[in-house]
From TrEMBL:
Entries under InterPro entries matching the protein: ADC_synthase, Chorismate_C
Pfam family, one: Chorismate_bind
Species for this entry: Maribacter algarum (ex Zhang et al. 2020)
Protein's name in the database: Isochorismate synthase
Organism superkingdom: Bacteria
Domain Chorismate-utilising enzyme C-terminal: 100-359
Length: 370
């Protein structure tokens, strides 16, 4: 039963032992991975198996949750319709001024030729008296099309999120990644109207990903650009697929992270600007997380009457990593919500600010009283 799974997770949390509980987009299965000790383990070469939790700064190590106990139960929530918070989001004018100044500074550096795009973010702090388990269940109830998770390690902290963006998905040697950028507010019964700024921003991400992968993968295919909805927001997305060589996962992850969708272009100069000017540590926001090298058996035939072929099974090795967007960190009775947006030379600081306000509502909604 699903609530037995939650009870086990609560017991783990009470004992201050590491765990992660999560559900993939459009699935009903909620999975939990429990670690029996409080040691911090790190990914060394991406040949390990478990659940990875990686920071934004790729120079910092990625945490590996060891799969000492695995659980899985179906959950069928009554999916809630995201609602409009309107003016209930209080704006701190001094923080607004600081973020707009940061955006203006980023635009100045772009016009000076230091980089083409930079993704700038901020923290939104709010009081939190709701338990992490209840917040996680609200995420499940509200965001069917997102990767919803609750991650805890006593030596690192408690994180929750509902992210729409895949960094990388592999099944044996086949892979899928995506270029996700551009944001518009969702309006009922209306399709998004994209401008040059959003198209350019998203194309920069697509071009970057295809360029860094073309010498590391084979059969690279770039799909059509499409609009996708994530909660109360629209985004532009392009899927990229292909094949990777066995044992080459680490180099692919290194090439992809951080993408221009969370950092900028060129990556190194944009990253240096972020680390030197955002005035806070992103930690695991805009990092990545997910299943790493999970093995399962797969029947070679779907014909249940063919018992002879049923004896032949293949081992499927899958990795599914998501970019850690639309997330929060819990610290005592305080929740820190992380939001950001891509800045180009055509950006308007006031609009960029409003975009971060819209994005903050994804997490703020789970604090609302039903």
């Amino acid at each position: 039963m699903f609530f037995e799974l939650l009870k086990t997770v609560v017991d783990q949390y009470t004992k201050e032992l590491p765990f992660v509980v999560y559900r993939k987009p459009k699935e009903t299965s909620v999975k939990a991975i429990l670690q029996e000790d409080s040691d911090i383990r790190y990914v060394k070469d991406f040949t390990e198996s478990g659940f990875v939790f990686a920071p934004f700064d790729s120079q910092e190590p990625s945490v590996l949750m060891q799969s000492d106990t695995n659980m899985s139960e179906d959950y069928f929530p009554q999916f809630k319709t995201t609602f409009e918070l309107g003016n209930s989001v209080q704006v701190n004018q001094s923080r607004k001024a600081l973020h707009i100044n940061l955006i203006e500074k980023g635009i100045t550096h772009i016009k000076q030729g230091e980089f083409k795009k930079v993704v700038l973010s901020r923290k939104v702090e709010t009081e939190c008296v709701t338990s992490p388990i209840d917040l996680f269940q609200k995420l499940l109830d509200t965001y069917r099309n997102a990767f919803c998770y609750l991650w805890y390690h006593p030596k690192i902290g408690t994180w929750l999120g509902a992210t729409p963006e895949i960094l990388l998905k592999t099944e044996n040697q086949e892979f899928t990644t995506m270029s996700l950028a551009g944001t518009k507010k969702y309006v009922a019964d209306k399709s998004p109207e994209w401008g040059n700024k959003e198209f350019e921003e998203q194309q920069l991400v697509t071009d970057y990903i295809s360029n860094v992968l073309q010498n590391s993968v084979s059969n690279l295919n770039i799909g059509e650009r499409e609009s996708i909805r994530a909660g109360n927001l629209w985004h532009l997305r392009t899927k990229l697929t292909g094949r990777i060589e066995k044992g080459n996962l680490a180099s692919i992850v290194k090439a992809l992270h951080p993408t221009p969708a969370v950092c900028g272009l060129p990556m190194e100069s944009a990253k240096d600007f972020i680390l030197g000017n955002e005035n806070y540590n992103r930690e695991y926001y805009t990092g990545f997380l997910g299943e790493l090298n999970i093995k399962s058996e797969k029947d070679r035939t779907s014909n249940s009457r063919n018992q002879e072929n049923k004896a032949y099974r293949s081992i499927k090795n899958t990795t599914t990593l998501f970019v850690n967007l639309r997330c929060m960190q819990l610290k005592g009775t305080n929740a820190q919500i992380y939001v950001g947006g891509g800045v180009t030379q055509d950006s308007e600081p006031e609009k960029e600010w409003r975009e971060t306000v819209a994005k903050s509502k994804t997490m703020l909604q789970v604090f609302a009283i039903d």
